[in-house]
């Protein structure tokens, strides 16, 4: 199996995935999952996010191994998401937030707004 740090670097270098990682890091989802699996709705409440949009984000990141999706929209941490926790000595969260930070580019760069509000980024 690949080194988790190298795997995370490849994911951050992929623009749509880097946007999703930026949002996950900004909302501190890895920190929230450190104590154990949680439902997407509970994570949405804890992050003041739009629940269906946050579920889509979590599902997308689970598809690439950042989180693990369990039945009933429950998500758990993985080796990759552990690297994004803010309490790690050299957390990748700062790098993910730097690379994925908003710009005046395409609507996909405003994914955080969409996840928090449930509104489409292109209307903002």
Rounded to the nearest angstrom, the distance between the terminal CA atoms is 41 Å
CATH level 1 name: Mainly Alpha
Q: Average pLDDT, to the nearest integer? A: 83
Question: What summary fits the major beta sheet?
Answer: 3 strands, antiparallel
Report the order of strands and helices. Answer: HHHEHHEEHHH
Taken together, the total number of domains comes to 1
Rg from Cα: 13 Å
**CATH architecture classification name:** Orthogonal Bundle
Number of helices: 8
Strand order of the largest sheet: 1-3-2
Helix vs. strand class: mainly alpha
Low-confidence stretches: none
Tally of DSSP β-strands? 3
- Share of β-strand residues: 5-15%
CATH superfamily: Winged helix-like DNA-binding domain superfamily/Winged helix DNA-binding domain
As for the CATH topology, it is: Arc Repressor Mutant, subunit A
Helix content: 40-55%
Task: Set out the fold topology.
Elements: H1 4-13, H2 15-26, H3 29-32, E1 38-39, H4 40-47, H5 51-63, E2 67-70, E3 74-77, H6 79-83, H7 93-99, H8 111-117
Helix pairs in contact: 2-5, 2-7, 4-5, 5-8
Descriptive notes:
The chain has 8 helices and 3 strands, in the order αααβααββααα. It has a single domain (4-116), classed as Arc Repressor Mutant, subunit A (Orthogonal Bundle). The protein has 124 residues and is mainly alpha-helical. It has helices spanning 4-13, 15-26, 29-32, 40-47, 51-63, 79-83, 93-99, 111-117; strands at residues 38-39, 67-70, 74-77.
């Amino acid at each position: 199996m690949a080194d988790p740090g190298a795997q995370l670097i490849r994911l951050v270098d992929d623009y749509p995935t880097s946007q999703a990682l930026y949002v996950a890091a900004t909302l501190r989802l890895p920190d929230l999952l450190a104590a154990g699996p949680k439902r997407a709705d509970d994570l949405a409440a804890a992050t003041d996010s739009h629940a269906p949009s946050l579920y889509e984000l979590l599902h997308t990141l689970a598809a690439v191994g950042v989180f693990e999706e369990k039945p009933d929209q429950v998500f758990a941490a993985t080796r990759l998401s552990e690297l994004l926790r803010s309490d790690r000595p050299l957390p990748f969260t700062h790098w993910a937030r730097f690379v994925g930070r908003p710009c005046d580019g395409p609507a996909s760069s405003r994914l955080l707004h969409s996840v928090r509000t449930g509104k489409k980024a292109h209307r903002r």
